């Protein structure tokens, strides 16, 4: 049985690697190779003639080099999935956070304050936690799912999730894995689309190639990245719903695994989980005497939504790509 489990895990990992990393890398490298061939404004017949004139060893070496590049890009994107997800959420360095992060948080705070609670319930933190708003939509969707167990049950999701995950049934684990794989695959496609837009357009522009090809590479790559990111947002919503369901349905299973009895009511449950999380985080015994907290039912003061327009980072990126493409095309003709 253990061997069968390992075999199924290996097959799943292989399928996940093919879908998340290998196929997007193959598509990106193929498009870059096509741009490299057509960027010199040579007719396809002359390119084919040059290929046929090469000896077999050169052809084999070129094919092997292309496959090696595909595998290398696949390995890099597969190992960088966590970093790519955190970057897409808005966890950046200090310099980027003070510039782009400030713009993104201002935009999403305005959207949160100007929208009805029902329309943004699963996409943003509550209005009472404006300081938790992230600079990207993806980050806000996942942040809302992360805050859900804390606001409802007093559970710190960062501490409890690694322990709860091992107690989930196979059906929920499969749904979580599918949603996580879809999210990773779409983020990798968005990232590789941006790489293709920059490298492809830059290569053609450096060779003074056709202006139309520069725009096709730049705008086509940016549009494909935007479409992939929009799909990643939907996948993140599904993933967040599965995370919420895991805490709603199976948090008592973790209490039993920890040797705890289910609390008699909501207030007692919040207090119990607060002590457990404090024990997991700092090793404080669960029977310690803690001072009472402020009444969580007292609603904080929510500021009125400010007036004015605040562009999102996606809008700024699309506008920048449009302007850059027009500048790159019109500059040689000035």
Would you kindly provide a written description of the structure presented here, covering whatever features stand out?
By secondary structure, this protein is an all-alpha fold. The chain contains eleven helices and no strands. The N and C termini lie far apart (71 Å). The N terminus is likely disordered.
How would you describe this structure in keywords?
334 residues; 11 helices; elongated; disordered N terminus; mainly alpha; 73% helix
Number of discrete helical segments: 11
| Integer average pLDDT | 82
Q: Beta fraction of the residues?
A: under 5%
Oligomer: single chain
Helix content: over 70%
Q: What global shape is seen?
A: elongated
**Major sheet attributes:** none
Number of strands: 0
Termini separation: 71 Å
Order of helices and strands: HHHHHHHHHHH
Q: Are there runs of 5+ residues with pLDDT below 50, and where?
A: 1-10, 294-299
For the CA atoms, what is the radius of gyration? 25 Å
Class by SSE composition: mainly alpha
Secondary-structure map:
Layout: H1 2-38, H2 44-53, H3 56-79, H4 81-89, H5 94-114, H6 137-153, H7 157-164, H8 170-206, H9 211-257, H10 266-282, H11 313-330
Brief characterization of the structure:
By secondary structure, the protein is mainly alpha-helical. The chain contains eleven helices and no strands. It has helices spanning 2-38, 44-53, 56-79, 81-89, 94-114, 137-153, 157-164, 170-206, 211-257, 266-282, 313-330.
């Amino acid at each position: 049985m253990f061997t069968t489990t390992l075999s199924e895990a290996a097959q799943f990992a292989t399928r996940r690697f093919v879908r998340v990393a290998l196929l997007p890398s193959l598509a990106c490298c193929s498009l870059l190779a096509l741009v490299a061939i057509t960027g010199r404004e040579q007719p396809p017949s002359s390119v084919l003639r040059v290929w046929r004139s090469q000896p077999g060893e050169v052809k084999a070496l070129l094919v092997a080099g292309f496959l090696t590049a595909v595998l290398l890009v696949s390995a890099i994107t597969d190992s960088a999935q966590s970093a790519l997800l955190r970057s897409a959420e808005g966890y950046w360095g200090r310099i980027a956070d003070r510039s782009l992060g400030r713009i993104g948080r201002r935009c999403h705070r305005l959207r949160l304050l100007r929208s009805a609670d029902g329309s943004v319930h699963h996409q943003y933190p509550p209005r009472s936690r404006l300081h938790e708003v992230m600079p990207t939509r993806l980050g806000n969707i996942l942040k809302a799912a992360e805050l859900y167990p804390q606001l409802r049950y007093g559970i710190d999701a960062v501490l409890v999730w690694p322990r709860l995950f091992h107690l989930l049934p196979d059906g929920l684990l499969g749904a979580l894995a599918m949603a996580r794989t879809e999210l990773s695959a779409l983020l990798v496609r968005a990232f590789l689309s941006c790489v293709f837009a920059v490298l492809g357009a830059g290569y053609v522009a450096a060779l003074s190639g056709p202006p139309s090809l520069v725009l096709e590479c730049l705008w086509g790559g940016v549009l494909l990245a935007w479409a992939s990111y929009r799909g990643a947002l939907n996948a993140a919503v599904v993933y967040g719903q599965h995370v919420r369901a895991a805490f709603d349905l199976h948090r008592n299973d973790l209490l039993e695994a920890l040797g705890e009895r289910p609390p008699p009511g909501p207030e007692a449950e919040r207090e119990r989980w607060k002590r457990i999380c404090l024990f997991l985080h700092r090793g404080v015994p669960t029977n310690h005497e803690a001072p009472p907290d402020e009444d969580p039912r007292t609603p904080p003061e929510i500021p009125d939504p400010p007036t004015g327009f605040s562009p999102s980072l996606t809008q700024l990126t699309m506008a920048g790509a449009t302007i850059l493409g027009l500048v790159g095309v019109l500059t040689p003709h000035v």
